[in-house]
Design goal:
Fructose-1,6-Bisphosphatase, Chain A, domain 1; D-Maltodextrin-Binding Protein, domain 2; 2 domains; 8-stranded mixed β-sheet; 5-stranded mixed β-sheet; binds 2,5-anhydro-1,6-di-O-phosphono-D-mannitol; binds magnesium ion
Length: about 325
């Protein structure tokens, strides 16, 4: 089989669809290179002294792991000097990170969750990096948080790297979803899936069911029906998987179908759900829609949400279209 590298793919996409100008190609390649570096650190584990906590907290009040901070630094450093970006924002930084004055600025803005699934780092379970790319608003002089607050429909690219038995990069620029596998010996990303499509029907769901008693009634109803399986209104059994790394759960769903849910619950009514809109839900929703699936917050399309803060949270229902539409209908009823 002919090997198609990430670079070759990006150049050919530009020729075919005019969707990846040189600056965006550079951006994607730099992010992909940074993910290689992160993958290398992840793979070293205790031998690289990268496990354990960093004894600091991020803006969400979560204890940061050493790898959260290392991955954040790797992405910042890799993306600062190329001239393709105006600013960056991250789960691990309270405010935005404008490109320092000593470097040229570009027209893109990059958001990321540098190391998603942090609770799995120390137990050698798949984790990942999620990223989203926006264009700077016309005429923007000095970037502010406000400039980032664009709906997910404005994303020009989104992707994730999953650090599992294999390291993979899943990418969309709005023309379907491609997957690249890291050839560790050659150090290159090689295309291994050209057009990922999520099966429309599924009998598999992913949710942290330990939160069940805190959910709102529509979620409880949907979940009870799944659990009742053959004996209930659904008339068939469902299987459950929960990795607690969104990247790994979404990756499984992209490949064999399923529905991923992180609903809002009653404990913190002001914080709608756990996952963050700008650098978790939006990029994943873009990828899932491009793969033929659906992504909602229970009420409407995630990509249509007009954000009001950088770190805002959102309920997430995504994956196989039929189940996402069903659980969304329960919320609207
Ligand atoms: P993180 O970005 O701090 O790692 O948190 C996000 C993660 C998701 O990857 C995952 O789906 C979820 O949190 C797991 O939550 P829980 O600990 O409730 O299982
Ligand atoms: Mg995360």
């Amino acid at each position: 089989m002919k090997r198609i590298s990430l670079t070759q793919h990006l150049i050919e996409e530009q020729r075919l669809h005019d969707s990846i100008p040189a600056e965006l190609r550079l951006l994607i390649e730099v992010v992909a290179r940074a993910c290689k570096t992160i993958s290398h650190s992840v793979g070293k584990g205790a031998l690289g002294d990268v496990l354990g906590t960093a004894h600091s907290e991020n803006v969400q009040g979560e204890i940061q792991k050493k790898l959260d901070i290392i991955s954040n630094e790797i992405l910042l450093e890799a993306n600062e000097w190329g001239g393709h970006l105006a600013a960056m924002a991250s789960e691990e930084m309270e405010t935005i990170h404008p490109i320092p004055n000593r470097y040229p600025k570009g027209e893109y803005m990059l958001l990321f969750d540098p190391l998603d699934g942090s609770s799995n780092i120390d137990v050698n379970v798949s984790i990942g990096t999620i990223f989203s790319v926006l264009k700077a608003p016309e005429g923007m002089a000095t970037p502010t948080e406000q400039d980032f607050l664009q709906p997910g429909t404005k994303q020009v690219a989104a992707g994730y790297a999953v650090y599992g038995p294999q390291t993979m990069l899943v990418l969309t620029t709005g023309n379907g979803v491609k997957c690249f596998t890291l050839d560790r010996e050659m150090g290159s990303w090689v295309m291994t899936q050209r057009d990922i499509k999520i099966p429309e029907e599924t009998s598999e769901y992913a949710i942290n069911a330990s939160n069940a008693r805190h959910w709102y009634p529509p979620m409880q109803q949907y979940f009870n029906e799944l659990q009742a399986g053959k004996t209930g209104v659904r008339g068939r059994d469902f299987n459950m998987r929960w990795i607690a790394s969104m990247v790994a759960d979404v990756h499984r769903i992209l490949n064999r179908g399923g529905i991923f849910m992180y609903p809002a619950d009653k404990r913190e009514p002001d914080k709608a759900g756990k996952l963050r809109l700008m650098y978790e839900a939006n990029p994943m929703a873009f990828i899932v829609e491009q793969a033929g699936g659906a992504a909602t917050d229970g009420k409407g399309r995630i990509l249509d949400i007009a954000p009001h803060t950088l770190h805002q949270r959102v309920p997430v229902f995504l994956g196989s279209r039929s189940e996402v539409e069903r659980v969304t209908a329960y919320h609207k009823a």
